[in-house]
Amino acid sequence: MLTFNSYLVLSAFVHSTLGLIQTPNFAADVIRTQQLEASWDATIEKRDDVPAGYVAPPYYPTPKGGWVGSWTDSYAKAAKVVANMTLAEKVNLTSGTGLLMGPCVGNTGSALRFGIPNLCLQDSALGIAATDNATAFPAGITTGATFNKALMYARGYALGEEARGKGVNIQLGPTIGPLGRKPRGGRGWEGFGADPVLQGFGGSETIKGMQANGVIATVKHFIGNEQEMYRMDIPPHGLMKAISSNIDDRTLHELYAWPFMDAIKVGVGAVMTSYNDVNGSACSQNSKLINGILKDEFGFQGLVMTDWLAQIGGVSSALAGLDMAMPGDGNTPLLGLAYWAYDLSTSVLNGTVPLERLNDMVTRIVATWYQFGQDQDYPLPNFSANTADPTGPCYPGALISPTCVTNEYVNVQGNHASVARNISREGITLLKNDNNTLPLSTQAVLKIFGSEAQNNPAGMNACNQRSCDTGILGMGWGSGTANYPYLDAPIDAIKRKAANVTYYSSDSFPSGITALSGDIAIVFINSDSGENQYTVEGNHGDRDASGLVSWHNGDALVQAAAAKYATVIVVVHTVGPIVVEPWINLPSVKSLVFAHLPGQEAGNSLTDILFGDYSPSGHLPYSIPVAESDYPSSIGIVGFEFFQVQDTFSEGLYIDYRYLNKNGITPRYAFGHGLSYTTFSKSSITLTAVTPLSTLPPARAAKGSTPVYSTAIPPASEVAWPTGFSAIWRYLYPYLDDPASISSAINFTYPVGYQTTPQPAPAAGGDEGGNPALWDVMFTLSVTVTNTGSVAGKDTVMAFVQYPSDSSYDTPIIQLRDFEKTDTLAPQGSQTLTLSLTRRDLSVWDTTKQNWVIPVSSSEPFVFWVGNSTANLTIACESLSKACSAGRPSPVV
Ligand code: BGC
Predict the structure, then answer these.
(1) 629: which DSSP letter?
(2) Looking at residue 814, what DSSP letter applies?
(3) Neighbours of 742 (CB within 10 A)
(4) Of 41, 307, 555, 647, which one is the catalytic site residue?
(5) Residue nearest to atom 2 of ligand 1 (CA)
(6) What is the Cβ-side half-sphere exposure of residue 67, based on CA atoms within 13 angstroms?
(7) Which of 184, 279, 776, 807 could bond to 54 as cystine, CB 3.0-4.6 Å?
(8) β-bridge pairing 884-885 and 851-853
(9) Ligand 1 centre from 198 Cα, in Å?
């Protein structure tokens, strides 16, 4: 089996076209890397020009961690340890040991004298990747569609329990970037939907759940990784740089960084940077993003890691605020070459990287380890992401490796199948249901069409990291996947449930079928996407080839079924929107069900809804347009350009419903749309003012103190090879052959704008997530929901904000700000939900003031719209009068 890792290796070799780093001689490699490093780091390389107005200003030095109250104890413990560490131990924890140099997809070095093992970093956002006996949960997009915060937390908790059970220290999820700006983008499905608030709640509930188990969660990818193609630098530098996502400051704050603020607010332990540049500066060494926004403005106290092989410079990334290099190799893996490891030792000894910076990196890592209690009985990895065998090489990337027990096959699934099923079911979104065609009777005569209803005949895990689209689509492809322990296919579940089922597994409509009156056709179609290291049916991660069209001629299959049968139900498994116009208005297409990406519980969760055991309660986490051209052209996949592809987010705040609303374009199905088998009414709507509005938030508090260490450069002997040490060739160590020869007189040109005096504390900061006042509740909205129909069901209430009409800030007409879901309500049952509107929810990011500003008006109100989709807003409350009324004209078409 070609693992993802070995794929990366192969691809890196293929890409290493200029042969700069080819010699197999270890010592020569080291010298060569140091030489290359010296030249690359001499200045932070100028990337291609970005369009005017998109800037990545320098922001130095890195703000030290430890000043936030909720981390004080962990930093105190970490400081005691770090003060006694050797240079080698410090470097060890910051640097990966190299690709395939340990059991996990990423492994750090250790500091065993202090009980700190090699830390295990492992994907994914929906399960424990590349292993056995673990749950394949529904994807983020399915979870987003539940609009259920409790389920988001439950999934995070179960994920964390499984990660801990396998000995994963740092889980590489949740994914909250990409945000879903591009409907064709490859990895939007890993996250929760095309809206920052939905992503924010999805991410932060997941993190709270994961971290409650002591696992360190990683939010990724910071930031602007909205398309897969051209995402990475192709080594060596200069040939083709990673795509530059050009994002203006306000859009960055109000859309793309917003969910990262939420993640930091709830104390996430790790952040992964993106492959791409932002405004012409690589995210792994973009000082404005890491030092300025993450660590100063958002007060992030944990550790910042690279995406895999995304590091492009050693000193430059250290100065810009990076804390951990993953998987440790330079941009061409498996050569024993690194930007950090031994080279970080050199850079500290020669004074290029201030010792203070290394101390901060390692303190952040050790403090995070303490913060989640990993010093207490935390298991070591009991699996290998590299092999399914019980024993094998400990370091498959080494030429000669000792042998290890690689897999203990620990079953960590617990009762998580029910968590998975609850979410897959509750994410199912009923978009159309004419004549109450659904739910079905178990006695109905059912004709099922499409290979998508069954399992991949080659096996549910036949394609590496699900990099094929054969059979039921339970997840997209790439590192955001997990192996299925089982995959309950829809056809099997339907056959278990219904008495009279005929299955036609072809994607071409079979000839010679006679449809009898009363027959019901269910047609399964799908649309897939994933990560750029695989091309599936011509799609390079993004849906660049297929567009928003169902795969395998799904449209033709639906049309053919609709020509034959009077009643057709279409079931779609998809990574994101598809255009349904070719058939949605055909008279026999009565029902349309989006089951998103259900994971292992695809079958049962679907039949729970199809046969009416549960009423559907999912809502669309994105809009479905009538035509893809309804979106702005700037959100299309950007094609090849020599040297560096520029992706300019010129639509600003106007993505998805924000754009459609502004331009008066009615979607086929609006963001939030989702039908039920029952009906609900809303009553007793009240708006309560909690905190008086003020334009600016109250001033932030001053920063607390951070650990202080000796600034004396440590003795070079601390990074000499230990006597009698038997090195694994290609494993990345902190050691140097002749550390005493390192001179401090190196002539290093620091990046433009580099300084060592701390920046003034940003007004928008003050705590984890930013100024804590941003989370002050300004208003609460309370709504009583009553089930007015005849079957049990759940309803969702969403609150959208409309800014005062005299505001001088150009702002989308409505923006989601909070949502809540009822419990299951029996007929006539009711429940009162309370939604909150915080200071941030009413603010815009003022690029001049560099602060969140509420456009307070004494004559024009904020209008808070209450409903369950952007197309279903007729109830509103106004901030000035606090009055709420129903029957208002919708603010959008
Ligand atoms: C992905 C990350 C992932 C990492 C490790 C990268 O290609 O972008 O999301 O965590 O690989 O597998």
Answers:
(1) G
(2) -
(3) 18
(4) 307
(5) 307
(6) 22
(7) 279
(8) unpaired
(9) 23
Q: Number of C-alpha atoms within 13 angstroms, CB side, residue 327?
A: 26
Angle of helix 355-371 relative to helix 342-349, nearest 10 degrees, comes to 130
CB 649 within 8 A of CB 246: yes
Atom of ligand 1 minimally distant from the CA of 4: 12
**Dihedral sign, Cα of residue 398, residue 400, residue 401, residue 406:** positive
Structure tokens at 298: 């958002």
List the one residue out of 307, 467, 485 whose CA is nearest residue 388: 485
Q: Does the pLDDT of residue 115 top 70, yes or no?
A: yes
**Residue 14, Cβ neighbours under 10 Å: how many?**
9
Determine the distance separating the centroid of ligand 1 and the alpha carbon of 313, expressed in angstroms: 19
Q: Please write the tens of the pLDDT for every residue from 573-603.
A: 999 999 999 999 999 999 999 999 999 999 9
Q: For the residues 241-247, what does the mean pLDDT come to?
A: 96
The predicted-structure confidence for 316-325, as pLDDT tens digits, reads as follows 999 999 999 9
In the numeric block, which tokens belong to residue 498? 């219904």
Rounded to whole angstroms, the Cα distance separating 70 from 81 reads: 19
Unique residue bearing structure tokens 């057709």: 568
Query: Is the minimum distance from the CB of 220 to ligand 1 under 6 angstroms?
Result: yes
Q: What tokens were used for 777?
A: 């509740």
C-alpha to C-alpha distance for 410 and 373, rounded to whole angstroms: 22
Cβ–Cβ under 8 Å, residues 848 and 763: no
Q: Indicate the burial class of 566 (C-beta count within 10 angstroms; 0-12, 13-18, 19 or more).
A: middle
In angstroms, the first-to-last Cα distance of the chain is 51
How far apart, in whole angstroms, are the C-alpha atoms of residue 544 and residue 805? 39
Q: Which of 108, 111, 87 is nearest to 348 (CA)?
A: 87
**Nearest-5° angle of CA 499, CA 505, CA 510?**
100
Q: Which atom of ligand 1 is nearest to the CA of 106?
A: 5
Where do the CATH 3.20.20.300 domains begin and end in the chain?
5-376+706-741
307: Cβ below 6 Å to ligand 1? yes
Radius of gyration of the chain (CA): 27
Q: Cα 850–852–856 angle (5° rounding)?
A: 125
Average pLDDT of the chain to the nearest whole number = 94
Listed residue (531, 769, 649) closest to 256, CA to CA: 649
| Whether 167 contacts 381, CB under 8 Å | yes
Q: In what order do the strands lie in the sheet with 815-821?
A: 815-821, 796-802, 863-867, 873-878, 884-885
Asked if omega into 393 is within 30° of 0 (cis), the reply is no
Distance separating alpha carbons of residues 93 and 115, to the nearest angstrom: 12
**Mutational test site, ligand 1, from 7, 222, 231, 308, max ligand atoms within 8 Å of CB:** 308
Chain-centre distance of CA 333, in angstroms? 25
State residue 236's pLDDT score: 54
The answer to whether residues 562 and 568 touch, using CB atoms and an 8 Å cutoff, is yes
Which tokens in the block code for residue 241?
């740089």
Structure tokens that stand for 359 in this block: 């101390």
> What's 5-376+706-741's CATH class?
alpha beta
Residue 21, pLDDT score? 24
- Cα(869) to centroid of ligand 1, in Å? 33
Residue 154 identity (one-letter amino acid):
A
Q: Supply 399's token pair.
A: 């030429």
Q: Which atom of ligand 1 is the closest one to the Cα of 123? A: 10
Give start-end residues of each CATH 3.40.50.1700 domain in the chain.
416-662
Largest CA distance in the chain: 89
Whether 29 shows a pLDDT value over 50: the answer reads no
- 307 catalytic, yes or no? yes
37: pLDDT strictly greater than 50? no
Residues of the chain with CATH 2.60.40.10: 680-698+776-886
Please say whether the structural domain 680-698+776-886 has been given the CATH code 2.60.40.10.
yes
416-662 adopts what CATH topology?
Rossmann fold (3.40.50)
